[in-house]
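Sharing in case it's useful to others searching the archive later.

Someone asked me privately for the predicted structure of Thioredoxin domain-containing protein, so I'm posting the question and my answer publicly. Question first, with the sequence:
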Amino acid sequence: MLHSTQDVDDITARVQKAGPKLVVVSFTDDISSPSLLLSDLVQLLDECYYHDNVLFITVDCDNAVKKIMSRKYRLADFPMSVFYKNEHEVGRIDAIGIADRLPKMIHKYK
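And my answer, the predicted structure tokens:
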């Protein structure tokens, strides 16, 4: 179930509502190649894990949104994916090796 947003309250509500489901929140920008790769990868993973209780949220961060999200979610770099389960952060991965590490992290926590 892929959902796109730029609203902090929407992300918070979806993480709370998901309960025991794994929630993968991927923060991207529109200027870096790794962000473009992550956007495509998340769409593919959403199709692969559609029936596995995994919720994907993508957040495309322009300059204004990037400042808000960076403060709220302690983002040091873009792209970055943050994993939640039962309303608690269980992991995060940054741009380095994100294409290899993202599927492994999903499998670990789902």
